[in-house]
Amino acid sequence: MIFSWKEDRAVEPDAAKVDEIVDWFAREREAHLSEGRCLELAQLFHPRVIFLKTLRHASRVLDVGAGDGSLPIFKSWPQPVREDLRMYAFSLEKGANFDAYEGYEIGNWEKVRPDFGGMKFDAIFSSHFIEHIRDPLEFISWSAERLSPGGRLYVEWPSDESLGMPSRDELVARGVDIMISNFRDDKTHRELPIAHEVATRMRAAGLEVDLQGKARNPYLEEEVMALFGKNGKDASAVQLAFWSKYRWAQYFVSTRT
Fold it and tell me: What's the superkingdom here (predicted)?
């Protein structure tokens, strides 16, 4: 199945939301955490890190669309330490941190699938990858085939809310320096996968949906903004807080039955 834009999902950004976001960024806040503790907790309570930290002992984890290769950082930080996890990466090009994986393969998903000698994985992790490929549902089916019994799948991608956000250019013009706001800010994005279609494919492929939702943390998004919102010291943390505030990212966790 090849995805294309659906007119009934087109959302015109609300001009009033620009003012709302500008006001939210400019708000005066008092921090209650140190910078280090804030960053630690912001990651620890994110669904993707919860997924990794709660995998069974000595799990083999495949990171599909691994980007710069930052996932192994979470083996040792924050607590609990999970050095028992064995991580492998697949991506278009070698990321800066790929040598931290047990192994990696470089390839274009549209032309070749991860092989790793036919290895079965105890977990497959995919964060902001399926919105970049032609057939996200085929990725779900492929993942189910490569998971060992009881293996777990984590998939995260933009929510429908991202379609109605102001563009990055609109926000930057108002002094809000954010990396991405509207789904279409990233020209490599294809179609936005529909959540219920992803869930249906998971079940058809033998995956039981354990968790689904939007990545939200109202407490820590305010702490991040209090500490980093105006000083430019951690753009990634501010982006995470922004996505949390506006329900920008959704996720599914499922288990191969």
Answer: Bacteria
